[in-house]
Amino acid sequence: MNKQLPQLIVLLFSLTLCVHLYSVVSHMTAIRVITKCLLLPLLIIYLIVSTSDTSVIKKTALFALFFSWLGDVLLIGDGTLFFLAGMLAFMLTHILNGMLLIKLQPFRFKGSSWVGILLATGAIGLIYYWLHDYLGTFLVPIVIYMVLIAAVWVCTFNLSNHVNYRWIAFYFFIPGMFFFVLSDALLALNKFLFHFPERWDVWVMLTYASAQLFLTLGYKKVIVVQSEADTTS
User: Fold this and answer.
1) For residue 182, what are the contacts with CB-CB under 8 A and spacing of at least 6?
2) pTM exceeding 0.90
3) What's the pLDDT band for 200 if we cut at 50, 70, 90?
4) DSSP per-residue string spanning 76-92
5) Which residues, 6+ apart, have CB-to-CB distance to 144 below 8 Å?
6) How far apart are CA 78 and CA 135, in angstroms?
7) Which distant-in-sequence residues (6+ apart) come within 8 Å of 143 by Cβ?
8) pLDDT tens readout for residues 20-32
């Protein structure tokens, strides 16, 4: 395998994101849709080609990316049904990410796990405080989604309790889920409270793409660490 191929895919991902952000501010609808639909497939390809590993972790991470891509596609559509279906797809992404993180490090109420619990609780509490009067019939699914994504963010802090994955948690998974929470918070605030799509969509997509890139790089690092451990054992 060409060792430069993964780096080229990351570069292509970054260029695609730049084109997408430009298409948002320039109201180039067709290019905006196309580039949005290309972002996650590029990360899927990156994870496939960056390691020859065929472990359950890699396969599950690929499924998590697939459901994110499905969510992206569904959220392109207008209306309540598309929004709820897209949210369900992202809930599956978070469930898979949470399962993987717990598989890597069973949950322990110690160390930075408490920091994660405090930050996540504060974040979703603040978002709920701002939005609960505006959610209407979306209140229950939004609250379930908020609790789920907050739980996964806590799991990234918990991963830092594992001696082999501590640096991966701090450099990739914790910031990755932070950007995911931030992106979804901006999306929800704009959809239910501010209603300025052109002004906010750039930041929503920039934080979202950053989140997915950090998480994908994190899984790649985990796979490499596990492969090295298997080789030396």
Assistant:
1) 207, 211
2) yes
3) confident
4) HS-SHHHHHHHHHHHHH
5) 91
6) 17
7) 128
8) 999 999 989 999 9
